[in-house]
Amino acid sequence: MKSTLFFATILTSSLFLFSACQQENVPVLPGLPYQSNFQYDSNGWSANIVDYGTAQDTSMRFKAAWTSLPTPLDGSRKSLMLESMNRSDDAFMFLKKKVTGLQPNTDYSLLFEIELASQYATNSVGIGGSPGGSVYLKAGATSIEPVKELKDNYYSLNVDKGAQATDGKDAITLGNVGIGDDVTGYKLITRSNANKPFTARSNNNGELWLLVGTDSGFEGLTTLYYSSIKVTTKSTQ
């Protein structure tokens, strides 16, 4: 399905689109490098969830919103919140955004730095896996739009983001969402691929779709707040 960006607070079980009615108070230029702290809007990111069957449509309880960081963090800071139950033991909640102004048909080496708020201890125990240690943060980019597809009563992604801790062709694992041992309450954590650059090739129009999300092996409720996404790059040609 195609994403159309509009301001909305209506949530559905399959798709929520973030607003873009206001602009960040810093220039948002085409292309890369890219950075947003979401202080004034969603900055053009849209959200979705895949890797579950149609029989689980209502039980996934997927939600997404542009909102303040949770207590005890600084409530004056904004973020993109994603939340769902993982009834399929394989849910992938994700964000996507198109960037333009790149060189057409060119390889780019991408470095992601993602800050998010998590409340899950790394060594915690849960159904199917750890709420912190078994929920894997991924990032990548593709020349085509990442789209939720339905086939044989199962929702999946049309690009290769890998499975849980395993990298895919179009996304790699940056780590898990654990905030440390025996820690409770929301805490800001940062994950990056500084030691493992990711290469993506722009399309004929000089565009790339950025992809950020969590691949979960924990069969319970996960609520995360993305507070900053930064992507730096250089051409490999």
Keywords:
signal; single chain; 237 residues; 16 strands; 6-stranded antiparallel beta sheet; Jelly Rolls; Lipoprotein; mainly beta; disordered N terminus; 7-stranded antiparallel beta sheet
Please give the alpha-carbon distance between the first and last residues: 33 Å
- Indicate the percent of residues in helices: under 10%
The run of helices and strands is EEEEEEEEEEEEEEEE
- Beta-strand percent range: 35-45%
Strand segment tally: 16
The radius of gyration computed from the alpha-carbon positions, rounded to a whole number of angstroms, is 17 Å
- CATH architectural label: Sandwich
Mean pLDDT: 85
Q: Mind summarizing the main beta sheet?
A: 7 strands, antiparallel
| Domain count | 1
Q: Can you count the helices?
A: 0
CATH topology: Jelly Rolls
Task: Output the CATH class name.
Answer: Mainly Beta
As residue ranges, the low-confidence spans are 1-29
Q: Specify the overall morphology.
A: globular
Q: Which structural class matches the secondary elements? A: mainly beta
Protein name: Lipoprotein
Keywords: Signal
Organism: Spirosoma validum
